[in-house]
Protein backbone atom coordinates (compact mmCIF):
# COMPACT_ATOMS: atom_id res chain seq x y z
CA UNK A 1 0.00 0.00 0.00
CA UNK A 2 1.42 3.38 -0.93
CA UNK A 3 1.19 5.71 2.00
CA UNK A 4 1.03 9.46 2.34
CA UNK A 5 3.49 10.55 4.98
CA UNK A 6 1.29 13.53 5.86
CA UNK A 7 -1.39 11.18 7.02
CA UNK A 8 -1.38 9.97 10.58
CA UNK A 9 -3.83 7.18 9.79
CA UNK A 10 -4.94 5.79 6.49
CA UNK A 11 -7.16 2.79 5.88
CA UNK A 12 -8.13 1.42 2.53
CA UNK A 13 -11.09 -0.92 2.25
CA UNK A 14 -10.20 -2.20 5.70
CA UNK A 15 -12.36 -5.21 6.44
CA UNK A 16 -12.55 -7.46 9.45
CA UNK A 17 -14.83 -10.46 9.70
CA UNK A 18 -15.01 -12.77 12.70
CA UNK A 19 -16.18 -16.33 12.99
CA UNK A 20 -15.19 -19.47 11.14
CA UNK A 21 -17.06 -18.50 8.00
CA UNK A 22 -16.67 -14.76 8.58
CA UNK A 23 -20.31 -14.39 9.55
CA UNK A 24 -19.67 -11.50 11.93
CA UNK A 25 -18.83 -8.45 9.88
CA UNK A 26 -17.11 -6.15 12.34
CA UNK A 27 -15.66 -3.82 9.72
CA UNK A 28 -16.70 -3.48 6.14
CA UNK A 29 -14.43 -1.76 3.67
CA UNK A 30 -13.50 1.16 5.86
CA UNK A 31 -11.77 4.07 4.17
CA UNK A 32 -10.32 6.73 6.44
CA UNK A 33 -7.68 9.39 6.07
CA UNK A 34 -6.61 11.35 9.12
CA UNK A 35 -4.07 14.09 8.66
CA UNK A 36 -1.21 14.71 11.03
CA UNK A 37 -2.11 17.39 13.54
CA UNK A 38 -5.80 16.60 13.44
CA UNK A 39 -8.04 15.96 16.40
CA UNK A 40 -10.30 13.34 14.95
CA UNK A 41 -13.43 11.96 16.58
CA UNK A 42 -14.62 8.47 15.89
CA UNK A 43 -18.25 8.07 16.81
CA UNK A 44 -20.62 5.18 16.82
CA UNK A 45 -22.93 3.14 18.98
CA UNK A 46 -21.71 0.05 20.80
CA UNK A 47 -20.61 -2.69 18.44
CA UNK A 48 -20.27 -0.26 15.55
CA UNK A 49 -16.67 -1.20 14.86
CA UNK A 50 -14.79 1.59 16.63
CA UNK A 51 -12.68 -0.66 18.83
CA UNK A 52 -12.16 -3.13 15.99
CA UNK A 53 -10.73 -0.33 13.87
CA UNK A 54 -8.41 0.79 16.65
CA UNK A 55 -7.30 -2.74 17.43
CA UNK A 56 -6.54 -3.38 13.79
CA UNK A 57 -4.48 -0.21 13.59
CA UNK A 58 -2.43 -1.34 16.59
CA UNK A 59 -1.94 -4.87 15.30
CA UNK A 60 -4.11 -6.63 17.91
CA UNK A 61 -6.38 -7.83 15.11
CA UNK A 62 -5.46 -8.94 11.64
CA UNK A 63 -7.54 -7.47 8.85
CA UNK A 64 -9.53 -9.89 6.71
CA UNK A 65 -8.81 -7.68 3.70
CA UNK A 66 -7.76 -4.16 2.89
CA UNK A 67 -4.82 -2.31 4.35
CA UNK A 68 -3.97 0.35 6.86
CA UNK A 69 -1.05 2.55 7.77
CA UNK A 70 -0.24 4.57 10.85
CA UNK A 71 2.27 7.44 10.64
CA UNK A 72 3.13 6.18 7.18
CA UNK A 73 3.97 2.70 8.46
CA UNK A 74 2.19 -0.48 7.52
CA UNK A 75 0.17 -1.87 10.43
CA UNK A 76 1.21 -5.44 9.69
CA UNK A 77 4.89 -5.11 8.82
CA UNK A 78 5.80 -2.19 11.06
CA UNK A 79 3.57 -2.87 14.03
CA UNK A 80 6.35 -2.60 16.63
CA UNK A 81 7.61 0.72 15.26
CA UNK A 82 4.06 2.06 15.18
CA UNK A 83 3.57 1.15 18.82
CA UNK A 84 6.82 2.91 19.67
CA UNK A 85 5.34 6.17 18.37
CA UNK A 86 1.75 5.85 19.47
CA UNK A 87 0.10 6.37 22.85
CA UNK A 88 -2.93 4.20 23.47
CA UNK A 89 -5.71 4.17 26.01
CA UNK A 90 -8.06 1.22 25.67
CA UNK A 91 -11.70 1.24 26.56
CA UNK A 92 -12.26 -0.44 29.92
CA UNK A 93 -8.69 0.25 30.96
CA UNK A 94 -7.30 -2.40 33.36
CA UNK A 95 -4.24 -2.27 35.62
CA UNK A 96 -2.04 -4.57 37.67
CA UNK A 97 -3.75 -4.36 41.02
CA UNK A 98 -0.72 -5.19 43.14
CA UNK A 99 1.17 -2.11 41.97
CA UNK A 100 0.90 1.46 43.18
CA UNK A 101 -0.06 4.10 40.65
CA UNK A 102 3.52 5.28 40.39
CA UNK A 103 4.93 1.78 39.96
CA UNK A 104 2.38 1.10 37.25
CA UNK A 105 3.21 4.29 35.36
CA UNK A 106 6.96 3.68 35.69
CA UNK A 107 6.53 0.12 34.46
CA UNK A 108 4.48 1.12 31.42
CA UNK A 109 6.92 3.91 30.57
CA UNK A 110 9.87 1.53 30.84
CA UNK A 111 8.10 -0.89 28.53
CA UNK A 112 7.57 1.90 26.02
CA UNK A 113 11.31 2.62 26.09
CA UNK A 114 10.77 6.37 26.05
CA UNK A 115 11.29 9.05 28.67
CA UNK A 116 8.42 10.58 30.55
CA UNK A 117 8.06 14.14 29.30
CA UNK A 118 4.58 15.13 30.36
CA UNK A 119 3.73 13.21 33.50
CA UNK A 120 3.70 16.17 35.82
CA UNK A 121 1.75 18.33 33.40
CA UNK A 122 -0.94 15.66 32.96
CA UNK A 123 -1.04 14.86 36.67
CA UNK A 124 -1.55 18.52 37.41
CA UNK A 125 -4.31 18.87 34.83
CA UNK A 126 -6.10 15.75 36.06
CA UNK A 127 -5.56 16.56 39.74
CA UNK A 128 -3.48 13.47 40.46
CA UNK A 129 -1.25 14.04 43.44
CA UNK A 130 1.91 12.18 44.46
CA UNK A 131 0.04 10.87 47.49
CA UNK A 132 -2.54 9.25 45.23
CA UNK A 133 0.16 7.67 43.09
CA UNK A 134 1.68 6.05 46.17
CA UNK A 135 -1.52 4.14 46.90
CA UNK A 136 -2.12 0.67 45.45
CA UNK A 137 -4.08 0.78 42.22
CA UNK A 138 -6.62 -1.68 43.65
CA UNK A 139 -7.83 1.10 45.98
CA UNK A 140 -8.51 3.50 43.11
CA UNK A 141 -11.96 4.52 41.98
CA UNK A 142 -13.00 4.03 38.37
CA UNK A 143 -12.24 7.65 37.53
CA UNK A 144 -8.84 7.50 39.21
CA UNK A 145 -7.89 4.46 37.17
CA UNK A 146 -8.97 6.22 34.03
CA UNK A 147 -6.71 9.14 34.90
CA UNK A 148 -3.80 6.73 35.29
CA UNK A 149 -4.72 5.37 31.88
CA UNK A 150 -4.61 8.84 30.39
CA UNK A 151 -1.19 9.52 31.95
CA UNK A 152 0.34 6.30 30.64
CA UNK A 153 -0.98 7.04 27.14
CA UNK A 154 0.23 10.64 26.99
CA UNK A 155 3.27 10.98 29.22
CA UNK A 156 5.87 10.13 26.57
CA UNK A 157 4.37 12.77 24.26
CA UNK A 158 3.69 10.36 21.39
CA UNK A 159 3.19 11.59 17.84
CA UNK A 160 -0.22 9.97 17.70
CA UNK A 161 -2.67 9.36 20.50
CA UNK A 162 -5.28 6.68 20.01
CA UNK A 163 -7.85 6.90 22.76
CA UNK A 164 -10.78 4.54 23.02
CA UNK A 165 -13.49 6.37 24.95
CA UNK A 166 -11.08 8.36 27.10
CA UNK A 167 -13.80 10.18 29.06
CA UNK A 168 -15.21 6.94 30.46
CA UNK A 169 -15.47 7.28 34.23
CA UNK A 170 -14.26 10.88 34.38
CA UNK A 171 -16.43 13.55 35.92
CA UNK A 172 -17.39 16.56 33.74
CA UNK A 173 -14.61 18.73 35.15
CA UNK A 174 -11.98 16.13 34.43
CA UNK A 175 -13.47 15.52 31.01
CA UNK A 176 -12.98 19.19 30.30
CA UNK A 177 -9.38 19.06 31.58
CA UNK A 178 -8.68 16.09 29.38
CA UNK A 179 -10.12 17.89 26.39
CA UNK A 180 -7.87 20.84 27.09
CA UNK A 181 -4.87 18.55 27.30
CA UNK A 182 -5.75 17.03 23.96
CA UNK A 183 -6.18 20.44 22.36
CA UNK A 184 -2.80 21.42 23.78
CA UNK A 185 -1.10 18.42 22.18
CA UNK A 186 -2.78 19.07 18.85
CA UNK A 187 -1.65 22.69 18.95
CA UNK A 188 1.90 21.34 19.21
CA UNK A 189 1.45 19.22 16.09
CA UNK A 190 0.44 15.90 17.64
CA UNK A 191 -2.45 13.90 16.25
CA UNK A 192 -5.33 12.63 18.34
CA UNK A 193 -7.71 9.92 17.21
CA UNK A 194 -10.36 9.13 19.72
CA UNK A 195 -13.54 7.17 19.82
CA UNK A 196 -16.46 8.28 21.88
CA UNK A 197 -20.11 7.84 22.59
CA UNK A 198 -20.36 11.50 23.51
CA UNK A 199 -21.22 13.69 20.59
CA UNK A 200 -20.91 16.80 22.79
CA UNK A 201 -17.30 15.95 23.54
CA UNK A 202 -16.52 15.43 19.89
CA UNK A 203 -18.29 18.63 18.95
CA UNK A 204 -16.30 20.64 21.42
CA UNK A 205 -12.81 19.66 20.41
CA UNK A 206 -12.64 17.76 17.13
CA UNK A 207 -11.77 19.03 13.69
CA UNK A 208 -13.43 16.18 11.89
CA UNK A 209 -15.65 13.29 12.80
CA UNK A 210 -16.33 9.87 11.38
CA UNK A 211 -19.44 7.95 12.30
CA UNK A 212 -19.45 4.20 12.02
CA UNK A 213 -22.35 1.87 12.30
CA UNK A 214 -22.56 -1.83 11.65
CA UNK A 215 -18.89 -1.86 10.72
CA UNK A 216 -19.36 0.75 8.02
CA UNK A 217 -18.39 4.35 7.75
CA UNK A 218 -21.64 6.26 7.38
CA UNK A 219 -20.35 9.80 7.72
CA UNK A 220 -17.04 11.55 7.50
CA UNK A 221 -17.62 15.22 8.15
CA UNK A 222 -16.23 18.35 9.63
CA UNK A 223 -17.79 19.04 13.00
CA UNK A 224 -19.64 22.09 11.62
CA UNK A 225 -21.46 19.91 9.13
CA UNK A 226 -22.43 17.46 11.80
CA UNK A 227 -23.67 20.14 14.14
CA UNK A 228 -25.70 21.80 11.41
CA UNK A 229 -27.79 18.70 11.04
CA UNK A 230 -27.95 17.86 14.66
CA UNK A 231 -31.37 18.05 16.26
CA UNK A 232 -32.47 19.08 19.71
CA UNK A 233 -35.30 17.75 21.75
CA UNK A 234 -37.57 20.53 22.99
CA UNK A 235 -40.16 20.31 25.73
CA UNK A 236 -42.11 23.34 26.80
CA UNK A 237 -45.06 24.30 28.95
CA UNK A 238 -47.17 27.18 27.61
CA UNK A 239 -50.29 28.93 28.84
CA UNK A 240 -52.18 28.99 25.56
CA UNK A 241 -52.24 26.72 22.56
CA UNK A 242 -49.84 28.33 20.07
CA UNK A 243 -51.02 28.98 16.57
CA UNK A 244 -49.32 27.79 13.38
CA UNK A 245 -46.68 25.77 15.17
CA UNK A 246 -46.90 23.01 12.62
CA UNK A 247 -45.91 25.44 9.92
CA UNK A 248 -42.46 25.94 11.44
CA UNK A 249 -39.62 24.67 9.32
CA UNK A 250 -37.01 22.39 10.90
CA UNK A 251 -39.51 21.14 13.47
CA UNK A 252 -40.64 17.54 13.54
CA UNK A 253 -42.40 15.06 15.79
CA UNK A 254 -44.46 17.90 17.18
CA UNK A 255 -46.90 17.01 19.95
CA UNK A 256 -49.25 19.42 21.72
CA UNK A 257 -51.08 18.00 24.73
CA UNK A 258 -53.31 19.65 27.29
CA UNK A 259 -51.59 19.76 30.68
CA UNK A 260 -54.56 19.80 33.07
CA UNK A 261 -55.89 23.32 33.54
CA UNK A 262 -52.46 24.90 33.59
CA UNK A 263 -51.86 25.00 29.86
CA UNK A 264 -50.30 22.89 27.15
CA UNK A 265 -47.24 20.67 26.99
CA UNK A 266 -45.38 20.86 23.71
CA UNK A 267 -42.67 18.51 22.63
CA UNK A 268 -40.81 18.24 19.35
CA UNK A 269 -37.45 17.71 17.65
CA UNK A 270 -35.88 20.82 16.19
CA UNK A 271 -32.94 21.64 13.98
CA UNK A 272 -30.55 24.11 15.55
CA UNK A 273 -31.41 26.84 13.04
CA UNK A 274 -35.14 26.56 13.78
CA UNK A 275 -34.89 26.89 17.54
CA UNK A 276 -34.87 30.72 17.97
CA UNK A 277 -37.99 31.24 15.86
CA UNK A 278 -39.71 28.34 17.57
CA UNK A 279 -39.01 29.75 21.03
CA UNK A 280 -40.40 33.12 19.93
CA UNK A 281 -43.64 31.41 19.03
CA UNK A 282 -43.68 29.68 22.38
CA UNK A 283 -43.12 33.00 24.15
CA UNK A 284 -46.07 34.48 22.33
CA UNK A 285 -48.15 31.60 23.71
CA UNK A 286 -47.11 32.35 27.30
CA UNK A 287 -44.01 30.23 27.83
CA UNK A 288 -43.78 28.93 31.42
CA UNK A 289 -41.09 26.27 31.24
CA UNK A 290 -38.61 25.21 28.61
CA UNK A 291 -36.20 22.32 28.20
CA UNK A 292 -33.85 22.07 25.21
CA UNK A 293 -31.84 18.87 25.19
CA UNK A 294 -29.01 17.93 22.89
CA UNK A 295 -29.96 15.00 20.77
CA UNK A 296 -28.26 11.74 21.65
CA UNK A 297 -25.73 10.40 19.23
CA UNK A 298 -28.32 7.98 17.97
CA UNK A 299 -30.86 10.74 17.39
CA UNK A 300 -28.34 12.97 15.73
CA UNK A 301 -27.19 10.10 13.64
CA UNK A 302 -30.73 9.22 12.62
CA UNK A 303 -31.68 12.78 11.86
CA UNK A 304 -28.60 13.04 9.73
CA UNK A 305 -29.17 9.96 7.66
CA UNK A 306 -32.83 9.20 8.26
CA UNK A 307 -33.99 5.79 9.32
CA UNK A 308 -32.57 4.08 6.27
CA UNK A 309 -29.38 3.04 7.97
CA UNK A 310 -31.23 1.19 10.69
CA UNK A 311 -32.13 -1.52 8.21
CA UNK A 312 -29.55 -1.14 5.50
CA UNK A 313 -26.87 -3.39 6.90
CA UNK A 314 -25.41 -3.93 3.47
CA UNK A 315 -24.92 -0.25 2.81
CA UNK A 316 -21.94 0.23 0.55
CA UNK A 317 -18.94 2.24 1.70
CA UNK A 318 -19.52 4.81 -1.03
CA UNK A 319 -22.63 5.88 0.80
CA UNK A 320 -20.46 6.93 3.67
CA UNK A 321 -19.31 9.96 1.80
CA UNK A 322 -22.32 11.05 -0.26
CA UNK A 323 -20.77 14.39 -1.14
CA UNK A 324 -17.76 12.86 -2.74
CA UNK A 325 -19.10 9.59 -4.06
CA UNK A 326 -18.85 8.95 -7.73
CA UNK A 327 -21.96 8.85 -9.89
CA UNK A 328 -23.04 5.30 -10.50
CA UNK A 329 -25.36 3.98 -13.12
CA UNK A 330 -28.87 3.31 -11.75
CA UNK A 331 -28.62 -0.28 -12.95
CA UNK A 332 -25.75 -0.92 -10.57
CA UNK A 333 -27.51 0.46 -7.53
CA UNK A 334 -28.66 -2.12 -5.03
CA UNK A 335 -31.96 -1.59 -3.21
CA UNK A 336 -30.03 -0.71 -0.09
CA UNK A 337 -28.09 1.94 -1.95
CA UNK A 338 -31.33 3.38 -3.33
CA UNK A 339 -32.68 3.62 0.21
CA UNK A 340 -29.61 5.52 1.25
CA UNK A 341 -29.83 7.75 -1.79
CA UNK A 342 -33.40 8.63 -0.78
CA UNK A 343 -32.16 9.41 2.70
CA UNK A 344 -29.46 11.68 1.34
CA UNK A 345 -32.00 13.45 -0.90
CA UNK A 346 -34.22 13.91 2.11
CA UNK A 347 -31.35 15.48 3.97
CA UNK A 348 -30.45 17.77 1.09
CA UNK A 349 -34.09 18.81 0.81
CA UNK A 350 -34.05 19.84 4.43
CA UNK B 1 14.29 -11.77 22.57
CA UNK B 2 13.71 -11.28 26.30
CA UNK B 3 12.24 -8.12 27.77
CA UNK B 4 13.86 -7.58 31.15
CA UNK B 5 11.35 -4.96 32.29
CA UNK B 6 8.53 -7.40 31.68
CA UNK B 7 10.45 -10.27 33.29
CA UNK B 8 11.07 -8.19 36.39
CA UNK B 9 7.38 -7.37 36.68
CA UNK B 10 6.36 -11.01 36.15
CA UNK B 11 8.71 -12.29 38.85
CA UNK B 12 7.65 -9.50 41.16
CA UNK B 13 4.01 -10.36 40.62
CA UNK B 14 4.72 -13.96 41.63
CA UNK B 15 7.24 -13.23 44.35
CA UNK B 16 5.08 -14.38 47.25
CA UNK B 17 4.13 -17.59 45.49
CA UNK B 18 7.79 -18.20 44.66
CA UNK B 19 9.06 -17.45 48.15
CA UNK B 20 6.50 -19.57 49.97
CA UNK B 21 6.60 -22.36 47.40
CA UNK B 22 10.39 -22.61 47.46
CA UNK B 23 10.47 -22.65 51.25
CA UNK B 24 7.94 -25.48 51.28
CA UNK B 25 9.99 -27.41 48.69
CA UNK B 26 13.11 -27.11 50.87
CA UNK B 27 11.23 -28.33 53.94
CA UNK B 28 9.52 -31.11 51.98
CA UNK B 29 12.73 -32.39 50.40
CA UNK B 30 14.72 -32.42 53.62
CA UNK B 31 12.14 -34.79 55.12
CA UNK B 32 13.07 -37.68 52.86
CA UNK B 33 16.64 -38.34 54.02
CA UNK B 34 15.25 -38.12 57.58
CA UNK B 35 12.50 -40.62 56.70
CA UNK B 36 15.12 -42.89 55.11
CA UNK B 37 17.28 -42.76 58.24
CA UNK B 38 14.28 -43.53 60.47
CA UNK B 39 13.37 -46.46 58.23
CA UNK B 40 16.89 -47.90 58.29
CA UNK B 41 17.07 -47.43 62.08
CA UNK B 42 13.82 -49.32 62.53
CA UNK B 43 15.22 -52.27 60.58
CA UNK B 44 17.99 -52.41 63.18
CA UNK B 45 20.34 -54.57 61.15
CA UNK B 46 17.68 -56.85 59.65
CA UNK B 47 17.84 -57.44 55.86
CA UNK B 48 16.53 -54.43 53.94
CA UNK B 49 13.24 -55.19 52.16
CA UNK B 50 13.00 -54.27 48.48
CA UNK B 51 11.47 -50.92 47.66
CA UNK B 52 12.30 -47.26 47.24
CA UNK B 53 12.85 -46.62 50.92
CA UNK B 54 15.61 -49.19 51.12
CA UNK B 55 18.11 -46.73 49.58
CA UNK B 56 18.71 -43.03 50.04
CA UNK B 57 18.48 -42.40 46.31
CA UNK B 58 15.18 -44.31 46.15
CA UNK B 59 13.77 -42.30 49.04
CA UNK B 60 14.84 -39.01 47.44
CA UNK B 61 13.23 -40.18 44.22
CA UNK B 62 9.92 -40.86 45.97
CA UNK B 63 10.02 -37.31 47.32
CA UNK B 64 10.67 -35.90 43.87
CA UNK B 65 7.69 -37.53 42.19
CA UNK B 66 5.32 -37.63 45.15
CA UNK B 67 1.92 -36.01 44.40
CA UNK B 68 2.75 -33.21 46.84
CA UNK B 69 6.01 -32.57 44.98
CA UNK B 70 4.14 -32.57 41.71
CA UNK B 71 1.71 -29.99 43.04
CA UNK B 72 4.57 -27.84 44.38
CA UNK B 73 6.71 -28.08 41.27
CA UNK B 74 3.66 -27.58 39.09
CA UNK B 75 2.71 -24.38 40.93
CA UNK B 76 6.29 -23.10 40.70
CA UNK B 77 6.79 -23.83 37.00
CA UNK B 78 3.73 -24.45 34.81
CA UNK B 79 1.62 -22.59 37.35
CA UNK B 80 3.54 -19.39 36.63
CA UNK B 81 3.08 -19.57 32.88
CA UNK B 82 -0.36 -21.10 32.48
CA UNK B 83 -2.09 -17.86 33.43
CA UNK B 84 0.49 -15.50 31.99
CA UNK B 85 -0.99 -14.63 28.62
CA UNK B 86 -4.55 -15.85 29.16
CA UNK B 87 -4.65 -14.29 32.62
CA UNK B 88 -3.55 -10.90 31.32
CA UNK B 89 -6.07 -11.25 28.54
CA UNK B 90 -8.82 -12.12 30.98
CA UNK B 91 -7.98 -9.22 33.26
CA UNK B 92 -7.71 -6.82 30.34
CA UNK B 93 -4.07 -5.89 31.00
CA UNK B 94 -2.72 -7.63 27.88
CA UNK B 95 -3.96 -4.75 25.70
CA UNK B 96 -1.61 -2.23 27.17
CA UNK B 97 1.26 -4.67 27.20
CA UNK B 98 0.69 -5.27 23.50
CA UNK B 99 0.43 -1.54 22.87
CA UNK B 100 4.09 -1.21 23.86
CA UNK B 101 6.80 -1.70 21.22
CA UNK B 102 7.42 -5.31 22.15
CA UNK B 103 6.99 -8.11 19.59
CA UNK B 104 4.52 -10.76 20.66
CA UNK B 105 7.24 -13.41 20.40
CA UNK B 106 9.29 -11.49 22.93
CA UNK B 107 6.34 -11.50 25.30
CA UNK B 108 5.99 -15.27 24.88
CA UNK B 109 9.72 -15.86 25.35
CA UNK B 110 9.84 -13.66 28.46
CA UNK B 111 6.85 -15.37 30.05
CA UNK B 112 8.32 -18.75 29.15
CA UNK B 113 11.59 -17.78 30.77
CA UNK B 114 9.75 -16.97 33.98
CA UNK B 115 8.38 -20.54 34.01
CA UNK B 116 11.89 -21.88 33.51
CA UNK B 117 13.19 -19.68 36.30
CA UNK B 118 10.50 -21.17 38.54
CA UNK B 119 11.46 -24.71 37.48
CA UNK B 120 15.14 -23.94 38.06
CA UNK B 121 14.56 -22.47 41.51
CA UNK B 122 12.26 -25.34 42.52
CA UNK B 123 14.84 -27.95 41.46
CA UNK B 124 17.57 -26.06 43.24
CA UNK B 125 15.39 -25.84 46.35
CA UNK B 126 14.79 -29.58 46.22
CA UNK B 127 18.51 -30.33 45.93
CA UNK B 128 19.35 -27.89 48.74
CA UNK B 129 16.67 -29.42 50.95
CA UNK B 130 18.01 -32.88 50.21
CA UNK B 131 21.53 -31.87 51.20
CA UNK B 132 20.25 -30.28 54.41
CA UNK B 133 18.18 -33.41 55.12
CA UNK B 134 21.16 -35.72 54.71
CA UNK B 135 23.13 -33.49 57.12
CA UNK B 136 20.31 -33.61 59.69
CA UNK B 137 19.91 -37.39 59.31
CA UNK B 138 23.65 -37.98 59.24
CA UNK B 139 23.60 -39.92 55.96
CA UNK B 140 25.77 -37.61 53.87
CA UNK B 141 28.15 -40.45 53.13
CA UNK B 142 25.37 -42.23 51.21
CA UNK B 143 24.53 -39.25 49.02
CA UNK B 144 26.13 -39.14 45.57
CA UNK B 145 27.04 -35.46 45.68
CA UNK B 146 28.63 -35.59 42.26
CA UNK B 147 25.24 -36.53 40.79
CA UNK B 148 23.36 -33.62 42.34
CA UNK B 149 24.01 -31.23 39.41
CA UNK B 150 22.55 -33.86 37.06
CA UNK B 151 19.51 -34.27 39.34
CA UNK B 152 19.08 -30.49 39.41
CA UNK B 153 19.38 -30.26 35.61
CA UNK B 154 16.95 -33.14 35.04
CA UNK B 155 14.40 -31.66 37.43
CA UNK B 156 14.70 -28.28 35.74
CA UNK B 157 14.28 -29.79 32.28
CA UNK B 158 11.34 -31.96 33.35
CA UNK B 159 9.35 -29.11 34.91
CA UNK B 160 10.60 -26.55 32.40
CA UNK B 161 9.05 -28.62 29.63
CA UNK B 162 5.70 -28.49 31.43
CA UNK B 163 6.10 -24.73 31.90
CA UNK B 164 6.66 -24.41 28.14
CA UNK B 165 3.59 -26.51 27.45
CA UNK B 166 1.63 -24.26 29.79
CA UNK B 167 2.66 -21.06 27.99
CA UNK B 168 1.64 -22.64 24.68
CA UNK B 169 -1.76 -23.40 26.18
CA UNK B 170 -1.98 -19.94 27.74
CA UNK B 171 -1.28 -18.21 24.44
CA UNK B 172 -3.95 -20.23 22.70
CA UNK B 173 -6.95 -19.25 24.81
CA UNK B 174 -8.66 -16.06 25.93
CA UNK B 175 -9.29 -17.39 29.40
CA UNK B 176 -7.14 -19.22 31.91
CA UNK B 177 -9.46 -22.15 32.79
CA UNK B 178 -9.10 -23.95 29.42
CA UNK B 179 -5.33 -23.46 29.44
CA UNK B 180 -5.20 -24.67 33.03
CA UNK B 181 -7.39 -27.70 32.25
CA UNK B 182 -5.16 -28.76 29.36
CA UNK B 183 -1.94 -28.33 31.32
CA UNK B 184 -3.18 -30.03 34.49
CA UNK B 185 -4.75 -32.72 32.31
CA UNK B 186 -1.40 -33.42 30.64
CA UNK B 187 0.42 -33.69 33.98
CA UNK B 188 -2.32 -35.81 35.57
CA UNK B 189 -2.66 -38.15 32.60
CA UNK B 190 1.07 -38.81 32.58
CA UNK B 191 1.16 -39.34 36.31
CA UNK B 192 -1.82 -41.70 36.31
CA UNK B 193 -0.30 -43.81 33.52
CA UNK B 194 2.94 -44.02 35.50
CA UNK B 195 1.24 -44.95 38.76
CA UNK B 196 -1.12 -47.46 37.18
CA UNK B 197 1.80 -49.07 35.35
CA UNK B 198 3.56 -49.56 38.68
CA UNK B 199 0.66 -51.45 40.26
CA UNK B 200 -1.26 -53.02 37.41
CA UNK B 201 0.22 -55.52 34.99
CA UNK B 202 -2.21 -54.55 32.24
CA UNK B 203 -0.92 -50.99 32.23
CA UNK B 204 2.74 -51.81 32.64
CA UNK B 205 3.48 -52.09 28.90
CA UNK B 206 2.10 -48.58 28.46
CA UNK B 207 4.11 -47.04 31.25
CA UNK B 208 6.74 -45.84 28.79
CA UNK B 209 4.15 -43.45 27.40
CA UNK B 210 4.27 -41.45 30.61
CA UNK B 211 6.74 -38.59 30.82
CA UNK B 212 7.22 -39.48 34.47
CA UNK B 213 8.54 -42.86 33.37
CA UNK B 214 11.48 -41.11 31.74
CA UNK B 215 12.29 -38.95 34.73
CA UNK B 216 14.07 -41.06 37.33
CA UNK B 217 15.82 -39.20 40.16
CA UNK B 218 16.86 -42.56 41.59
CA UNK B 219 18.46 -43.59 38.31
CA UNK B 220 20.26 -40.26 38.08
CA UNK B 221 21.67 -40.56 41.61
CA UNK B 222 22.64 -44.21 41.00
CA UNK B 223 24.03 -43.36 37.54
CA UNK B 224 21.77 -45.91 35.89
CA UNK B 225 19.53 -43.43 34.05
CA UNK B 226 19.82 -43.11 30.29
CA UNK B 227 20.87 -39.50 29.49
CA UNK B 228 19.18 -39.88 26.09
CA UNK B 229 15.81 -39.77 27.85
CA UNK B 230 16.38 -36.04 28.28
CA UNK B 231 15.69 -35.80 24.56
CA UNK B 232 12.02 -36.55 25.29
CA UNK B 233 11.70 -33.44 27.45
CA UNK B 234 13.75 -31.36 25.05
CA UNK B 235 11.36 -32.47 22.28
CA UNK B 236 8.28 -31.56 24.33
CA UNK B 237 9.85 -28.17 25.06
CA UNK B 238 10.72 -27.50 21.43
CA UNK B 239 7.27 -28.53 20.16
CA UNK B 240 5.41 -26.51 22.78
CA UNK B 241 7.64 -23.47 22.24
CA UNK B 242 7.22 -23.71 18.48
CA UNK B 243 3.45 -23.79 18.92
CA UNK B 244 3.50 -20.80 21.28
CA UNK B 245 5.74 -18.76 18.97
CA UNK B 246 3.57 -19.66 15.99
CA UNK B 247 0.13 -19.34 17.50
CA UNK B 248 0.20 -16.27 19.74
CA UNK B 249 1.55 -13.74 17.21
CA UNK B 250 -1.13 -14.82 14.75
CA UNK B 251 -4.04 -14.64 17.13
CA UNK B 252 -6.72 -12.01 16.84
CA UNK B 253 -7.16 -10.33 20.17
CA UNK B 254 -10.60 -8.80 20.14
CA UNK B 255 -11.73 -6.43 22.87
CA UNK B 256 -12.12 -8.25 26.18
CA UNK B 257 -15.69 -8.76 27.36
Question: Biggest interface and its residues per chain?
Answer: A-B, 30 and 23 residues
Largest sheet of chain A, in brief, is: 6 strands, mixed
Question: How are the strands of the largest sheet of chain A arranged?
Answer: 6-7-8-3-9-10
Give the oligomeric state.
heterodimer
Structural class of chain B: mainly alpha
Q: How is this structure best described in words?
A:
A six-stranded mixed beta sheet of chain A has the order 6-7-8-3-9-10, with helices on both faces. Chain A has three domains: 7-222, 3-Layer(aba) Sandwich (Rossmann fold), CATH 3.40.50; 231-294, BMC (bacterial microcompartment) domain (Alpha-Beta Plaits, 2-Layer Sandwich); 306-349, no CATH class. Chain A contains 13 helices and 14 strands. The model of chain A is unreliable at 307-350 (pLDDT under 50). Chain A has 350 residues and is an alpha/beta fold. Chain A has helices spanning 50-57, 79-85, 101-112, 119-125, 130-134, 142-154, 172-187, 199-205, 223-228, 275-284, 297-305, 308-311, 335-349, and strands spanning 7-18, 24-35, 39-43, 65-70, 73-74, 86-89, 160-164, 191-196, 208-213, 216-222, 231-238, 251-259, 263-271, 287-294. Helix content of chain A is 34%, strand content 28%. Chain B has one domain. The mean pLDDT of chain B is 92. In chain B, α1 (4-13) packs across α8, α2 (15-43) runs parallel beside α8 and α8 runs antiparallel to α12 (230-250). The two termini of chain B are 31 Å apart. Chain B is mainly alpha-helical and 257 residues long. Chain B is built from twelve helices and no strands. Chain B has helices at 4-13, 15-43, 56-64, 67-76, 78-81, 84-91, 94-98, 104-137, 148-170, 176-199, 217-222, 230-250. The chains are: A alpha/beta (350), B mainly alpha (257). Chains A and B meet through α1, α2 and α3 of A and α1 and α7 of B.
Amino acid sequence: MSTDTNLAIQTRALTKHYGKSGEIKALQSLNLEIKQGELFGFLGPNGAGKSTTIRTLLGFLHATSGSASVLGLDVVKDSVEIRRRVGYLPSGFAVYDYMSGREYLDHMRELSGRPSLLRHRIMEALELSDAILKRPVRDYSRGMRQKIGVVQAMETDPELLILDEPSEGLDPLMQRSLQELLLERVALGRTVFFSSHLISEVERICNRVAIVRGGQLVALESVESLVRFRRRRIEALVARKPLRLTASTGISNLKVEAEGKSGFRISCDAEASAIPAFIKRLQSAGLRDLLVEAASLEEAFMSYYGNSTRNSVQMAPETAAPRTSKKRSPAKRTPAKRVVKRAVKKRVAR
Amino acid sequence: MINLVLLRRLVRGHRIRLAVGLAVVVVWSLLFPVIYKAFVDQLDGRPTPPGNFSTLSGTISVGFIHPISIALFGILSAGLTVGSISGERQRGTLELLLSRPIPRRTIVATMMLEGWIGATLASAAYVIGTVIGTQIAGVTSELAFEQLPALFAAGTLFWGSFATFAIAASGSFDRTPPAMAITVGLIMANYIVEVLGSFWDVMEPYQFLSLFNHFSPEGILDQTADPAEAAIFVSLTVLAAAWAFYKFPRRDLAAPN
